[in-house]
Design brief:
mainly alpha
Length: about 210
């Protein structure tokens, strides 16, 4: 058997092929990441500001309503007893106002915490999609996954009703029942009728 020792040797271009394939893969990864970034661009500062506002807009009116009812019940109870202008009454009103202020502050703090939680969820979902995209290098799959994730994250939040804020300070039920059974002192009954104006209406103050 004769060997052609003088013939040309086959060219090994496997490294070049591997390099080209990696470039193509990186291009697909970049394309997928672009699709993810585009989908998640909705989560800008204005979006998070609006989320915070939606939270406070949901809970502040509930706090205002509870405060108005609690204050009216408190005024009704003290007026029924003829002690509306007493020192204990004024102290109780002061406690109620402080509790109301604390409740509004807590709502603001909860709104900030809820917004931070959403930011964390957005970041976590985006990072997860980045990792999946890097492994699969499939731009179409990355775009579909990003759209689904953004759709889930932008679903309107399900706010629970606000808990009773002033139940520990005022037994509104007892005050109301007592008011039903006992007439107000002269000069006060008119003030508590629906649509009445002036002191004793229980209107929320700012």
């Amino acid at each position: 058997m004769c060997l052609n020792l003088g013939g040309s040797q086959p060219v090994d271009n496997s490294a070049e092929i591997a390099r080209q394939k990696e470039q193509e893969r990186q291009s697909r990864v970049a394309s997928g990441q672009g699709a993810i970034d585009n989908a998640f661009s909705v989560f800008n500062p204005a979006y998070f500001d609006q989320f915070t506002k939606s939270y406070t807009d949901n809970y502040n009116p509930q706090a205002d309503e509870q405060f108005g009812k609690a204050r009216q019940n408190l005024r009704y109870d003290f007026a029924r007893k003829g002690t509306l202008n007493s020192t204990p009454a004024q102290a109780k009103f002061g406690d109620l106002l402080n509790s109301y202020s604390d409740a509004r502050d807590q709502i603001a703090a909860n709104a900030a915490n809820a917004t931070d939680t959403l930011r964390g969820q957005v970041s976590q979902n985006k990072s997860s999609l980045y990792n999946q995209n890097s492994a699969a290098a499939n731009p179409s799959a990355a775009a579909v996954g990003a759209a689904g994730s953004v759709g889930s994250l932008t679903t309107a939040p399900n706010f629970s009703p606000l808990a009773d804020l002033f139940g520990g300070l005022i037994n509104s039920g007892a005050s109301y029942a007592a008011g039903k059974q006992n007439r107000l002192p002269a000069g006060y009954e008119q003030a508590f009728r629906p649509g009445a104006s002036g002191r004793g209406t229980g209107r929320v103050i700012s």
